[in-house]
Amino acid sequence: MLFKKIEEFGNLEMSYLCDFSGGYISRNKSIMDNLDLNKFTQFVLEKCVHGTPIFKLGNKGTRILILSGIHGNELPSQIANLKLLNRMLYKDLNHTLYFIPFASPKSTMNNQRTLNTMDLNRSAHIKDSLSNLIVRAVEDLGINFVGDFHSTSFNSNPGIESVFSSKSPSAESYLIANYISQDIGCTVLSVDFAGSYYKGAVEDVCNLNGIPAITGEVVCPFANVGEGTVERSFAQMVSFLDYFGA
Ligand SMILES: [Zn+2]
């Protein structure tokens, strides 16, 4: 995967994961009402028209991925991820950070959970699905840790602010979840073995591949941005990075 340097935004580099997932995120009113629209965020939205962009900052240390938008109708984490990337642009980093703020721009445009009826958090094990391409990119890029950030509505699963993790085969998943839980106050949800309840979650497939991963959840109605939800998701991401001293 070739990354291109984007001179106008400091040390930013970008590449594309695929070209079949593009969408006009600006058609999602809830996103636009809650986004800090500036030269950089406009640049990212424009890139999303053509597929799923992945951004990179820094060249040292541990390689960490902040992922969001696996479910296109879960909006707070996508806005928070873009905000975090924007804030990190000109920082001198001691780690290498990868960002995928909008995993499936087409789903986000349509405010839909799925991409062409496929649930991307149940299909990361299916060859050439979008989430499978993400998991493969994680391996190809030598990414060491993955944080996948979602939201959940009151009446769905899990329905509480939480961090999903598993104790094996990548034990550090559980340690990271506990760190975030104690740091910002949210529930740890953990299974003994990754993927034992259902198949194809990005977090589980990464953990099964030996790359410790967690899934962050904040409570927010689907396809909406509840008050304070972007901030809570942002806090989960910052805490995730804090675990690594990033
Ligand atoms: Zn989700």
Structure report:
This protein is α/β, with parallel strands linked by helices and 246 residues long. It has a single domain, classed as Aminopeptidase. The chain is 33% helix and 22% strand. The protein has eight helices and nine strands. It has a nine-stranded mixed β-sheet with strand order 1-2-3-5-4-6-9-7-8, with helices on both faces. Strand 7, helix 6 and strand 8 form a beta-alpha-beta unit. Helix 3 crosses helix 8 and helix 6 crosses helix 8. It is globular.
Quick gist of this model?
The chain has helices spanning 29-34, 39-48, 75-88, 105-109, 130-140, 172-185, 202-208, 229-243; strands spanning 4-5, 13-18, 52-57, 63-68, 96-100, 145-152, 162-168, 187-193, 213-219.
The CATH architecture category equals 3-Layer(aba) Sandwich
Describe the main β-sheet briefly. 9 strands, mixed
Radius of gyration using CA atoms only: 16 Å
- What is the succession of H and E elements? EEHHEEHEHHEEHEHEH
> What is the 3D form?
globular
What is the share of helical residues?
Answer: 25-40%
Q: Count of helices?
A: 8
Bound molecules: zinc ion
Rounded mean pLDDT score: 97
Strand content: 15-25%
Query: Which strand order do you get reading across the main beta sheet?
Result: 1-2-3-5-4-6-9-7-8
CATH-level-4 superfamily name: Zn peptidases
Q: Quaternary state, please?
A: single chain
List keywords for this structure.
246 residues, binds zinc ion, 22% strand, 9 strands, Aminopeptidase
